[in-house]
Amino acid sequence: MVAVNNWTFAVLLALAAPAAAQQNPWNAPVASTAAAVPVASTAPASYADNLGQPLSVSGGPWVLSEVLFFSAGRVVSDYAWRDRVRGRRGQIYTNTDLQNDVETLMGLGAFERVTPAVYAISGQIVPSEFAAVTISTNQVRVVFNVNEKPKAADAKPKLLIPPSAVSGLILTPTAYRGAGKFNNPGLGLDINAAYFIGRLYGKNIYQDSPRKTNYIDRIGLWTLTADGKMQVQSDAGWRPAVAVGGQHMLVFRDSPQPTVATPGVSVKVNSKNTKTYTSGYVVASKNLRSTRVSAGLMQGGIGEFVSGLSEFLTPEALKFYAHDAPGTEVHSRTVPFASVFYLVKPDYPIGFEVMKFNGAATNPYMVNFKIGRLLKLNFDLAYLKFRGGYEVLGLFQFRYNHFPRN
Question: For residues 185 and 169, what is the distance between their CA atoms, to the nearest angstrom?
């Protein structure tokens, strides 16, 4: 029995000798149609003893048992890479297949270099139907050692600014939802905040007013609005988008209502200087070559807040300076409005809106200009006109699109 085993060992040694003679130095390149693609290497030395008997990568054909990927000295299980390799377990695998797989992997653009190696796996004998055509009596393990390119995520991330909502401009809504991605009917919800800082310039013709010209005066009026809508018709062809909705506005001051004779001072927000207004609206909007035009009507308390934007619209000013009847107030329940705006960039809106406070004393109306990006700031302007004068106001405005997110 010992003699037989020694004879068997001698035969196996003789068969292995030609293969060893054919084996190239480990760093020799393999012939390939892509001359620039390096295709000769070995797996990391720490793994070589466990992979099997090294074979020449220029030999073949072989019967493939498995394919492994090594990157930076470790095994990588990436199915996106594995699916690109044409070799399949239990099939004939040739040197041409090996070269083509290297070229395919390099074509992914993810690697600086791909170098293959082939190992005979001890104990996995080639099936009898392939024994006559394969160079190795054992099935083989193909190893691709890859050098990955630096990933884009390793670079400094680029700051991405979300697109501006097209569901409203400054104080008025449109019939659109969110950032304009959804044109189909559905629900929308915005949170809108505006802060009227103060008057930049104003003039009046009240006979008994102490000053006819005013500038750089504090207002300190905040508005925080929840705006919910239902878009009932989409924008298509000549048909405008149509929406109905409601607004609930919280108005409070960080300075008291200014007066003609007394400058304002800082105060705390409390029930005496806080008001809430609720109103409903209907609005139609049309996108004309990327310029969005809207018109609508608000009904409710929205018409009340305008009286807080100027001391010349208070009941005291109307009584003593405009000589209106006692008890006269700037009070409106119906506010028609219109707006036009254009997105210079997805996050860069410019435009204006007009609000008319029907039935209010002094017949006021407002034109709000969305021009903050032109000034390289989030700073907008408002023009308030009333019987007896006008004012130019400065404000900050922020619109947060809560639903739908896009």
Answer: 20
Q: From start to end of 32-110, where are the E strands?
A: 53-55, 62-71, 74-75, 92-93
Are 24 and 60 spatial neighbours (Cβ–Cβ below 8 Å)? no
DSSP 8-state symbol, 108:
T
**How buried is 139 (Cβ within 10 angstroms: 0-12 exposed, 13-18 middle, 19+ buried)?**
buried
Q: Which two tokens stand for residue 102?
A: 């290297």
In the structure, how many helices (H) and strands (E) does the chain have? 5, 17
CA distance 112 to 150: 9
CA 46/CA 80 separation, integer angstroms: 26
Q: Length of the chain, please? A: 406
Comparing CA positions, the residue from 161, 116, 104, 107 lying closest to residue 141 is 116
**Token pair belonging to 348:** 């860069």
- Phi/psi region, residue 175 (left: phi>0; alpha: psi -120 to 50; beta: rest), is alpha
Q: CA-CA distances (angstroms) from residue 263 to 211, 275, 308, 325?
A: 13, 22, 15, 26
pLDDT (tens digit, 9 = 90+) per residue, 344-382? 988 889 999 999 999 999 999 999 999 987 777 789 999
Q: What is the DSSP letter of 239?
A: B
Dihedral of CA atoms 38, 42, 44, 50 in degrees, nearest 10, equals: 150
What pTM value is reported for the model? Answer: 0.60
Q: What is the pLDDT of residues 74-118, one digit of tens each?
A: 887 766 777 788 777 888 888 888 888 888 888 888 888 888 989
DSSP string, 8-26: HHHHHHHHHHHHHHHPPPT
**Residue 227 CA neighbour count, 13 Å, CB half:** 33
C-beta separation of 69 from 144 below 8 A? yes
Task: Give dist(CA 253, CA 260) in Å, integer.
Answer: 17
| Contact status, residue 48 vs residue 42, Cβ threshold 8 Å | yes
Give the side-chain half-sphere CA count within 13 A for 51: 23
Rounded-to-integer distance, Cα 53 and Cα 298, Å: 83
Q: Which of 141, 113, 148 is nearest to 48 (CA)?
A: 141
Residue among 176, 284, 302 at smallest CA distance from 247: 302
Neighbouring residues of 112: CB distance < 8 A, sequence distance ≥ 6 = 147, 148, 149
> How far is the C-alpha of 165 from the C-alpha of 185, rounded, in Å?
17
Report the range of poorest mean pLDDT among 17-31, 67-81, 337-351: 17-31
- For residue 118 the two structure tokens come to 């082939």
Q: Which two tokens stand for residue 97?
A: 């297949």
